[in-house]
Design goal:
Layout (H helix, E strand, L loop, with lengths): L1 H15 L1 H5 L5 E4 L10 E6 L5 E5 L3 E4 L4 E4 L7 H4 L1 E6 L5 E5 L2 E6 L4 E5 L8 E7 L2 E6 L2 E6 L2 E5 L12 E6 L5 E6 L2 E6 L5 E4 L11 E7 L2 E6 L4 E5 L4 E4 L8 E6 L4 E6 L4 E5 L5 E5 L14 E6 L5 E5 L4 E4 L6 E3 L1 E2 L3 E2 L5 E7 L2 E6 L2 E6 L4 E5 L9 E7 L2 E6 L4 E5 L4 E4 L5 H6 L2 E6 L4 E6 L2 E6 L4 E5 L11 E6 L5 E5 L3 E5 L4 E3 L13 E6 L4 E6 L4 E5 L5 E4 L10 E6 L5 E5 L2 E6 L4 E5 L10 E8 L5 E5 L2 E5 L4 H5 L6 E7 L2 E2 L4 E2 L6 E6 L10 E7 L6 E4 L3 E4 L5 E9 L2 E12 L8 H38 L4 H18 L9 H7 L4 H11 L4 H17 L9 H7 L5 H12 L3 H7 L8
Parallel strand pairs: 61-67
Antiparallel strand pairs: 1-28, 2-3, 3-4, 4-5, 6-7, 7-8, 8-9, 10-11, 11-12, 12-13, 14-15, 15-16, 16-17, 18-19, 19-20, 20-21, 22-23, 23-24, 24-25, 26-27, 27-28, 29-58, 30-31, 32-33, 33-34, 34-35, 36-37, 37-38, 38-39, 40-41, 41-42, 42-43, 44-45, 45-46, 46-47, 48-49, 49-50, 50-51, 52-53, 53-54, ...
Helix pairs in contact: 8-9, 10-12
Length: 910
């Protein structure tokens, strides 16, 4: 009775306060200047047809692709206030228009520069822009302008250009696009696009500031106007009457928009963001700053707001940068039974899903949910001896719960009471570790523990104990018990495997063929629809076998997965094999020829899955235990969701650190960087791509948590760079680049002469090499018994320095002492003696000194100013970032960035 009353009370709270509960579905990410934003005041937000989000700040126009911010500056403007962006829009011909405090601008996409438009006519603030196909409506400080077919028409609401009503703050069209509505600082105006007629309406005339309309939007025959002091005001177009909308707790409205059907989106300068129902005139959702909510918005002072085509919320702040809600496509869901239970942020170790009755085990206790009766109950200490639930099994009407360090308990779903398992070893089943509980087809319950294997029969109450002393059970903890379709039991322990033979009712460990995994630490065993067995080991790739073990092998899942990353495996009804890992989730088919990877953007809350926690229910839904909740997916929806993916777009292509637009490059423009985006707007750490540069990469390579790839020192030729979401050909983007040969077509004559010279040189070199080989044995013998004289050391040192400085061989990261000795026509022994005994220097210290010197020259050269430290280090011959930093500090006593700052440079990304 108490549980029923509690449920009813919580249900009423949920229905009444549903807005606040739903608001938790959004997770916001903050973008500030350290992320590349040009300023902390974001005054305008616009998403273009390609998918880029444009941000108008106090001094610049920024373009955001979900990871990086690129700046587009207003050239020729000194005053910071005049640079503030007020509005951004795009016409149907993909022209991007920007209004700021000094006029109208357009982005020239050929050179990525903002150009001033008609400055002789519009040399004052542009407050609002509205695009309708190729027509641009411009709201300014001095009236309305219409840009159409290259012509500019000015419309004044009052003949006095300086009249307050000519100061237009926002614009929108009516339903049939024949009337333009203008929000001004002195009333609401309409302008007929048919006959040019202008009408006006005023709200509470002669009351200061109540007529100051800052922004407006329209749903049907209702206009919503944001004011500076009266909150949101509605205007009924048919009745031509004003009325107040619901109070939002702040009357300063900074931005307003709508979905055109049902919801009005309102930004306030002081009380966050509100979603208003047009039908019910009630706030349905609210976002506000809460110091305890690390995933909420960062400030209540909102200057701009956008709810985009996918429902993501973009919030521009005053002095707090940009917040945007992380997008997820909804493929995966985190299980919840609102308002009584939500598995979000629980680390799920085990679960039993019996339709509308579920028992869920986590690191924080046990949860029972009955969706029919509405009963939800949690069990934690001291009711549970241990909060860490390792395994759950439903057996003869009760749930058997195995814990780590708290034994095994039995839950009666009828009374919701817990009791200890009373059979067998009392000490073990009250304080020991229970790793696995599985029923077999004959009515027995098998229990894997830290003290062997138990077989319990609930009817006879008899229990049998298998140990390594009384059976062939391998020693150690018993982690897994799995019965296959023939009734045979597979038992995995800490030190190996054995098989339970139901005919002889015995354990056998001597039946495995050579090369099987019976000596490995296996954690999970699974049988698919075609009766193949899958073994997940603590270390090693996925292992598959037939039931008879006549065919078995290691199966490659994904070339980039570490061997210890697999956690669980399950097959869906469409024949896909789903593999959960400690760093993601995959599905594969046809030996990996078809595959998909799932991340945060698909609704997976965290990358880490728990061992063996995977289940397919009677509807075909797949359930997985994740460290951030119990999640489920309908496999039939995967192709539908994947079909809606935006194609990847290249955001920048750099040659030697400089953007270029031509597909043909000079021979020395051979260090290429490809930057791209799929407009996911999720967690940057969840980004996952695969790429390949044809002619360089043999296979696809995986790229995680990044959106750019670099190649250095490419030889001349035509290259095709491909990038896509893993396994998704529909998302693939292609870029072809040609690095021209150093010798043009007119230089072939010279090339022929050069080839002849090279052939002659090779013949000479071969002759000299043969001569040296004949003499090499004598030379080697000499240096085995004799040290170099002082004069010999001086001469060899002189040759060594001259060769290294002339040929710059140190830029080759694979340079070996033997290569250098051969070039100097001496032996490795002699060169080693010179360096170690005469110069008191190791070979690598000697070469790295030249590389450090080369680095100092390059950082002082403006040609290399755009290169990162890692790129410069590679160009100097260092094989790794670590060896570069170590050698530079050893040589100079300071880090590379400290050195750059000491010469007046700007510190680079490390």
């Amino acid at each position: 009775m108490k549980d029923t009353i509690k449920y009813l009370i919580l249900l009423i709270i949920y229905l009444v306060c549903g807005v606040n509960l739903q608001a938790q579905d959004y997770m916001f990410r903050n973008v500030v200047m350290s992320d590349g934003l040009s300023g902390l005041l974001v005054n305008a937000i616009y998403k273009d047809s390609e998918g880029f989000v444009w941000l108008g700040t106090d001094n610049c126009l920024d373009r955001f692709d979900g990871v990086k911010v690129r700046h587009f500056e207003f050239r020729g403007i000194e005053s910071g206030r005049k640079k503030r962006v007020n509005s951004v829009t795009e016409t149907a011909n993909r022209q991007l228009w920007v209004g700021n405090g000094i006029g109208l601008w357009r982005l020239d996409r050929t050179n990525s520069q903002l150009e001033r438009i008609v400055p002789e006519k519009i040399d004052f603030a542009v407050n609002a822009l509205l695009a309708n196909e190729d027509i641009l409506y411009i709201g300014t400080e001095k009236g309305l302008f219409i840009h159409k077919d290259g012509q500019l028409l000015q419309v004044l609401t009052d003949r006095n250009m300086l009249a307050a009503c000519n100061r237009i703050m926002d614009i929108c069209l009516n339903e049939d696009q024949t009337v333009l509505w203008l929000a001004t600082v002195q009333g609401l105006f309409s302008y007929s696009l048919k006959d040019g007629k202008i009408d006006s309406w005023h709200f509470q005339e002669n009351v200061p500031e109540t007529d100051y309309f800052r922004c407006l939007t329209r749903i049907g025959e209702t206009l919503y106007l944001g004011t500076m002091s009266q909150g949101v005001v509605r205007f009924d177009i048919k009745k031509e009457t004003f009325s107040h909308a619901v109070s939002l707790g702040c009357d300063v409205i900074s931005d307003i928009s709508s979905d055109g059907k049902e919801t009005v989106y309102i930004a306030t300068d002081g009380n966050g963001v509100h979603f208003l129902s047009h039908k019910d005139q009630q706030v349905t959702r609210r976002f506000y700053h809460d110091v305890n909510d690390k995933e909420g918005i960062r400030s209540n002072s909102i200057y701009s707001l956008l709810v985009d085509d996918r429902g993501a919320v973009w919030v521009g702040h005053f002095q707090a940068g940009l917040d945007y809600s992380l997008y997820q496509n909804g493929l995966f869901r985190t299980y919840a039974y609102p308002p009584l239970f939500n598995s979000a942020n629980l680390s799920i170790r085990s679960f039993v899903n019996r339709g509308q009755e579920k028992v869920i085990g986590s690191r924080d206790g046990l949860f029972y949910i009955n969706e029919v009766s509405g009963v939800v109950k949690s069990f934690v200490k001291p009711v549970l001896t241990s909060d860490l639930i390792l395994t759950i099994s439903f057996y003869q009407g009760e749930y058997y719960i195995g814990t780590y360090g708290g034994g095994m308990m039995v839950l009666d779903p009828g009374t919701l009471s817990l009791k200890y398992f009373a059979q067998g070893d009392t000490e073990l089943f009250q304080k020991g570790h229970i790793f696995c509980v599985k029923p077999d087809a004959k009515g027995n319950l098998w229990i894997g523990t830290s003290h062997g294997l138990f077989c319990y029969n609930g009817q006879t109450k008899q229990i049998k104990h298998f140990t390594s002393a009384n059976s062939q059970l391998p020693e150690g903890n018993v982690y897994e018990v799995s019965f296959d379709s023939t009734g045979k039991g597979w038992i995995a322990t800490e030190t190996g495997m054995c098989i339970y033979d139901p005919a002889s009712q015995s354990l056998r460990s001597n039946v495995f063929p050579e090369g099987f995994v019976h000596r490995d630490k296996v954690r999970t065993i699974y049988e698919d629809a075609e009766h193949n067995l899958y073994f997940i080991r603590e270390k090693g790739s996925l292992f598959t076998s037939t039931l008879t073990m006549d065919r078995f092998r290691n199966r490659s899942i994904f070339s980039t997965l570490p061997d210890n990353s697999l956690m669980s495996v399950i097959e869906d009804n469409q024949g896909w094999l789903w593999v959960a890992c400690n760093d993601g989730l995959l599905r594969i088919k046809e030996e990996g020829e078809e595959y998909d990877a799932f991340t945060f953007n698909d609704g997976v809350p965290g990358p880490t899955f728990t061992n063996g926690a995977a289940y397919k229910d009677e509807k075909g839904l797949l359930w997985f235990g994740n460290t951030k909740g119990l999640i489920y997916v309908d496999p039939k929806r995967v192709d539908e969701v994947r079909g809606k993916v935006r194609p990847i777009v290249f955001t920048d292509i750099l040659a030697n650190g400089v953007p270029f637009t031509s597909s043909s490059l000079k021979y020395n423009q051979n260090n290429l960087t490809f930057c791209f985006t799929d407009f996911a707007y999720g967690l940057p750490s969840a980004l996952l791509y695969e790429y390949r540069l044809e002619g360089v990469d043999k296979d696809w390579k995986l790229l995680a948590a990044q959106n750019e790839v670099s190649y250095y020192g490419l030889s001349s030729g035509t290259y095709t760079f491909r990038v896509r979401l893993p396994g998704n050909e529909q998302s693939e983007a292609i870029c072809r680049v040609t690095v021209r040969s150093m010798i043009p077509w007119w230089g072939w004559g010279f090339s022929i002469l050069l080839i002849v010279g090279i052939i002659a040189f090779i013949r000479y070199y071969v002759w000299k090499r043969m001569r040296r080989l004949l003499a090499s044995s004598a030379v080697e013998e000499k240096y085995k018994t004799n040290r170099l004289t002082e004069e010999e050391c001086k001469e060899l040192h002189k040759k060594l320095v001259a060769y290294v400085e002339k040929e710059k061989s140190y830029i080759n990261p694979d340079l070996k002492m033997g290569d250098l000795a051969s070039a100097l026509d001496t032996s490795s022994h002699s060169l080693s003696y010179l360096l170690n005994q005469y110069l008191n220097q190791s070979y690598y210290d000697f070469i790295n000194e030249y590389r450090v010197t080369q680095f100092k020259k390059m950082v002082a050269d403006s040609q290399y100013s755009r290169y990162t430290l890692t790129a410069l280090a590679e160009l100097c011959g260092f094989s790794s970032r670590a060896s570069f930093f170590r050698s530079f500090k050893k040589s100079t006593g300071v880090t590379p960035n400290e050195y750059i700052r000491s010469i007046g440079g700007t510190a680079k990304e490390e």
